Amino acid sequence: MTESNSVVRLEKLAKAYTDGQTFYALNHIDLEIGRGERVAIMGPSGAGKSTMLNLICGLDVPTSGRVFIEGTDISQLSDDLRTRLRREKVGMIFQSFNLLPTLSALENVSLPLRLRNRSRREAERRAREMLERVGLHRQATHRPDEMSGGECQRVAIARALIFDPPVLLADEPTGNLDSASGEGVLQLLNELHRELNNTILLVTHDRLTAESCERMLILRDGRVAEDSAHPSTIESVLTESL
Amino acid sequence: MMTALAFVTFRQWGQHKLRLFLTLAGIALGVAVFFAVRTANTTLISSLATTVEKLAGHATLQVSAGEASLPQEVLASVRQTSGVHLAEPVIEKVVETALPDGPNLLVMGMDTGSDLKLYEGEFDQSSLEISNPLAFTERPDSIALSRPFADHYGLKDGDRIPIYTPRGRQDFTVRGFFRTTGASVVFGGNIALMDIHAAQAAFDRVGKLDRIDIMTDPAANVGEVQQSLRARLPAGFEVAKPDRRGESLEKAVSAMHLSLLIMSLLALTVGVFIIFNSLSVSVNQRWKEIGVLRSIGVEGHRVQKMFLVEAGVLGLVGSALGVGLGFVLAGGATKIMSNVSASVYGLASTPQAPAFRWDFAVIAFAIGVACSLFAAWLPARAASRLSPIQALRNIEVQQSEGVLGWSRFILGLSFIVVGLALSVFSPPGVGLMVHFTFSLMVQFGMILLLPKFVVWGTRILRPLMSWQFGAEGQMAMDAVVRMPRRTSATVGSLMLGLSFVFSVGAFIHSHKNSLDRMLDRCINADLTIATSDQIRSRTYHFSEDQERRVGSLPGVKDTDGMRLTAVAHGNDEIMVIARDMGLWFSNSPGLLDEGDARSAQQQTMKGEGFLISQNQSFRTGMHVGDQLRLETPKGPLTRPVVGVVEFYYVEKGSVFMDRSLYKQFWGDNSVDLILLNLDPGVDRVWFKGEINRAMAGEQRAFIYTNEELKAWSSRTTDQFFTLTYLEMLIAIFVATMGLVNMLVVSVSERQRELGILRALGGLRSQVRKIIILEAVAISVVGFATGVIAGLFNAYFLVRTAARLIAGFSLRFEFPLTVVLVTLPVVLLVAIAAAWWTAQRAMRLRVVEAIGYE
């Protein structure tokens, strides 16, 4: 993969915590992810999956090494610049949805655009389109407590994609859902990927979810234990590694 | 189970120390102000009474003519009355000395030739050290000083002390001292004794007495002797027991006490709302905890009980602290009130430490606890009604609907309308406290309307915020509206605190403007010469000769000598104001509020009619045409009321008559104020110097231009309201602390929300801006509602309380300056608090805030 094709690039990326002795949550990882790739990240608890996502989206800063998003080294940026980059280029989906409980679905979805100082009218028009796209136009005025878990996650997906980010990070998006809802969410993500061709990094424990991706990383003890870029080898990787 | 719940609450206190502190401070401050005002007032009255008692010695009766003097012949009549054992003549003057820093001195003139047995332990031989008793009595310049006063100014036996008298500055020779017991503590130790004849000569009282102290025969019934004296003496003389004099002094300061009490009650309502706010915030903050408790089997009523018990305990602790703090504040409050009583009412008091009254402490304590429970009831009920699922999700949804409901709005509106109607249409006779309750009804109605005010206020602000601050402005407005319960509680505490400030501001402003208007109509001379820097002294006057001399200076167009004397009238006092009525009418067009000016002028000039003040008319129901009877040393004086004047100098009511009539019936030609009008072109400031030169070497004269008189009036009003200003500061402090409390809690409980905003791309500056704009919006709405509630409150203070306390009909004046000064203060506090809390919130890592790791 050439450097120009990579959307996400990690160079010797490390995140260490010191509590008497140093513990590496991520241990000098090198990785490149190309445009339009769907990558499943798997691994046991504490392997460094969420830490990796935090560093990629700039929510956290590495101890050493660098993170490039579309060629920009975000590890050298200030907090404000990282935040600006995040709201331009990275959409996020969380296991626990992280919708604001007092906002309606429409308001939640429009939030990223409003943070970018788009007019309320424009933000809500675009949010309505996104809600329609995820099949929730009728629930636009519903608050999170008035929707099912699957619907909440669809709202979160709409929110993550409203500004058409080149990178979408999803941290166990089906982890809190029943199997039917989870399947629906995955299907939606796949459809949207086909339409938008964005890069998706998806943390999951679920084999079926992982199998829906073209590439799979397996993390263990802060290192990449496996990196399978070919769907045909996924089954064997899963069997051997997990 | 309650023990377990108490443990949960206790842990909460440990984790939210600031909230705990603010809640306790709210209760403690409310209770403290209430307790301090009551304690200080009692201490002041006790110190006034002590002064009277110490100066009265063992007298069982006293004869006086109010503030006018008694003819000396009366003494013989008194002594001849059956049942009178001893009768001693007294001259009592507060004079100014020419010592460094010019202290005032209370000079008692007594018959030192007698053994002064009536004053045993106070002024008798055992209490005095006089080296040469014969010289002391014989020489008219003799004076005995209290030891502390003499020591303070380094005065020894034989030294000279300069004193201003109506005959000019005179030097007196120190020929004796009080021992450090007895009367030497009166008037802060600034007390002196002279022989009665010397005092009469020095203070222009030859042939006159200020008072006669009487010791009745031990076998005689004091009441019967009192009746005999009343029958024997003209009706204008007052024969009273000394403790009754104490009571009349208590009445003199009753207006001050009542107004302070009303202010302290208002301060207490602010305290109540702080508790309500704090516990509402506590319920909001602990939703999740309530949800957990409910889900593990704690019933709703126990949750309610948990909050009520918490409020009760906070009430107990806060009230106990409040009583302690109140007692400390009472020391300062007593000093302030003593100063006011001396400067505004001219009453000398004996400094006393505040006495701790258990009954006041118990009342204040009970009020504090009751208010805490009352304030906690609604938040506790709200907590008990929370749906466990909603609570676990920490969502303020169902509550908003209840809070914003129209039924609540209509109820609130009804309270306001009914409260106002009762205030306007109820007769004054129902009493001050009943009217205060009507005012509280209006305030309660305003509280019920708050959520709607918040929504409407935010709608009004939204376009402005959006235009000025973009998406952050809109998002801040959304956040305010989305949490009406929490927002309303904070807006409410701001509203009540500020309404107190604005209404008291309106009251004081209206009071000052009314006084200015009165001065324009009643004391509208180019220059006013007074005997005291407090305009009038109860004991110190100009002589007619001085008035004549000043009036004859070149450049004087006309002069009016004005005498103000408080005399007994029924069970109370009335201020008799004697002046040149013809001149007054000529110089004051539009003088009368009621009555025909032309005929009133004619009648009063001839001594055939009285004018009365508006408050006298209000108190007695007298109007033009009614007959007013005054008791004078020469017998009853009855004249028709021919006019009513707007006059606010004293709360007790005033009657105006021509000076010739006054002199005829009271035999008193003293003057308190000399009003001068100057020829055209004469410079007033220059002429002040001329007057000072003309009066040089005599008593000091205090000369005011019209503007200076108004400034003095404004200063005196400020002095009167010193304690009220302190209460205003406390109210602002408490209200802004409520705002800080809410912001701290609001931001800490919204860390996840703020974290999500940051995760979605919100910059630190954006999030900080949202928090600050929320605080600004809440402040603006709190400020606006504070103005509205303040106007309602001001109606009570200006129209009702002023009338019921002092009979004053003040005209409402909007306190624009107070409003304009308060707005930036509130906004600055809000912005500073929001900035601080936002900075704290920003320190948290986003991944921690959203619980992502």
SSE blueprint and pairings:
The complex is a heterodimer of chains A (242) and B (853).
Chain A: E1 6-19, E2 21-34, E3 38-42, H1 49-57, E4 64-69, E5 72-73, H2 79-89, E6 90-93, H3 105-115, H4 120-133, H5 149-161, E7 167-171, H6 179-196, E8 199-203, H7 207-211, E9 215-220, E10 223-228, H8 231-241
Parallel strand pairs in A: 3-8, 3-9, 6-7, 7-8
Antiparallel strand pairs in A: 1-2, 1-4, 4-5, 9-10
Helix pairs in contact in A: 3-4, 3-5, 4-5, 5-6
Chain B: H1 2-15, H2 17-56, E1 61-64, E2 70-71, H3 73-80, E3 84-96, E4 104-110, E5 128-130, H4 133-138, E6 142-146, H5 147-152, E7 160-165, E8 168-178, E9 191-195, H6 196-202, E10 208-209, E11 211-216, H7 222-232, E12 238-240, H8 242-252, H9 254-285, H10 287-295, H11 300-343, H12 358-384, H13 388-393, H14 398-404, H15 406-425, H16 432-482, H17 484-522, E13 527-530, H18 544-551, E14 556-569, E15 572-579, H19 581-587, E16 592-594, H20 597-605, E17 610-613, H21 614-620, E18 627-632, E19 635-645, E20 654-658, H22 659-666, E21 673-678, H23 684-694, E22 702-705, H24 706-720, H25 722-749, H26 751-759, H27 764-806, H28 816-843, H29 846-849
Written overview of the protein:
The complex is a heterodimer of chains A (242) and B (853). With 242 residues, chain A is α/β, with parallel strands linked by helices. Chain A is 38% helix and 28% strand. Chain A has eight helices and ten strands. Chain A has helices at residues 49-57, 79-89, 105-115, 120-133, 149-161, 179-196, 207-211, 231-241, and strands spanning 6-19, 21-34, 38-42, 64-69, 72-73, 90-93, 167-171, 199-203, 215-220, 223-228. In chain A, helix 3 (105-115) runs parallel beside helix 5 (149-161). With 853 residues, chain B is α+β, with helices and mostly antiparallel strands. The longest helix of chain B has 51 residues, at 432-482. The two termini of chain B are 35 Å apart. The relative contact order of chain B is 0.12. Mean pLDDT of chain B is 81; it is low at 395-401. At the A-B interface, helix 1, helix 2 and helix 3 of A face helix 13, helix 16, helix 26 and helix 27 of B.
